[in-house]
Each structure stands twice: as C-alpha cells, then as structure tokens.
Amino acid sequence: MRSIWKGAITFGLVNVPVKAYSATEDHDIALHQVHATDGGRIRYQRTCELDGEAVEYADIAKAFDDGERTVVLTAEDIASLPAEKSREIDVVEFVPSDQVDPIMFEKAYFLEPDSPSTKAYSLLRRTLQETQRTAIVQFALRQKTRLGALRVRGDIIMLQALLWDDEVRQAHFPSLDEAVTLSDREMSMSQSLVKSFESDFQPEKFTDEYQAQLRTLIDAKLEKGDSLDTAETFGERETGSGEVLDLMEALRLSVEKNRKKATA
Prior knowledge:
The chain is an alpha+beta fold. Helices cover 28% and strands 25% of the residues. The protein folds into two domains: 5-25 and 81-166, Ku70, Chain: A, Domain 2 (Beta Barrel), CATH 2.40.290; 179-263, no CATH class.
C-alpha cells in the first residue's frame, strides 16, 4: 500500500505522527463505452463553450456562479486556505462509541505510526479500547474539511470519515404514522425466523455475485462472440410463483424452509 497523506493526530499537547492509507478498494470490473455498431471507443473532450476549443486539464479552474457573477478559483487560490494547509487530525472530543450513528460513516483509512517510537500511538489505541470511546476529529483531505472518528480495528487505529450533520437527510413517511397491531403469535413467528438465520458475521463468506457473473459473461463472450446463448451460460432464471401469501403463512413457510436447510 502507498500512503496518501502524512500528518499527526493531536489531542491536548500529545502529538502522534501518522501516515494514512485507503482502507478499502474497488473490485468492480472496469468497463468503457464503445459505439455499439462498430465497437469504436467513445472519447470525451473538455471544451470551452465560448470558443469551442478543447481545454487541457491543467488549464481548468473552478468557479462559483451566484446567478449574476462568476468567481474563478485557481488551484493556488484553494491551496491558500488555512484548512487545506493543515496536516493535523485534531481530536475535539471523546464520545461513547454507540453514539456515532453508522449512517454517518464514509471512507475509512488505516493510520500507521510515522515515528521511530510508537508509544504515543499505542497509548491512544489502548485508551480508545479500554474506555470504549470514539475520538471525534476534524481534518482536511483533498480540498475538503472533514469530520471523522478514530476507532480501533485489531492493532490499528482507523480514521473513519464522517458526513456532516446537514448531509444526512431527515426522513418522515406518513405511511408509518398509522397505528399497527402486532399479535404475540406474529412476533413469536418472526423471532423464530430470525433465530433460524442466526450466525456470527464472517464477511469472507460473501461474494459479489454480479461481478462474478459479469466475469463469466465476458469470458463466454470472448470464447463464443455474438453467438453466445446467455440462457445456456447462466441457466434459466427462476421466477416466483406469483402467489401472494398472508404474513403468518409467509413466516411459517420461511421458518420451515430454513429448518430443512439446517438439517440437510
């Protein structure tokens, strides 16, 4: 892995030099656009609407338009912002970990100690573990001031970027205002169904079926070309019976199905 950022975690007078690495990566198969009739690659150009000329990426600036005036901001202008220059992950508070709503989670980063001594890093990691607290931090990365959370995964401190509060939509659905009566029998059957699905989470058990099927399709198309029969490649798609079951019957059949699967 290659680090994407170097700086320091700061809380009080404690300074913990760190390097940040992207903790996740995209595994999607890369596809590009072509002309369907002849397979020619589709190319895009950035053109200026005033003179119609193609513009090199290096000559492109950003701008804000309020409807009456346009302000052009160069890369140098943006780089001059104090927050953009900051190389600190500034701890502003330590909060109970269960108070951080997962809906706020964005991209995750691994933080590696960037000092001959890892004592300060280890102290912060152990403190987070033993207090069961999450450090709320502010930092700047890639021309954006961000809110974040420091948490521990194994023996590594992770920086989890968070959405700002006003970036999380509030939802209200009138359909949920209607009072619903749930019987004890319905609750019991529902809990039985949950119990039949109980397991410890092991993410390695799961695969991206769409990407696997896309790879199969690509390989088959490379071998057979346009004569490919997708039904032969993937088999006939199963469809539901179309029968609408009431809630209790659906619960009962689901529990039975899972019991049979467990004993098979």
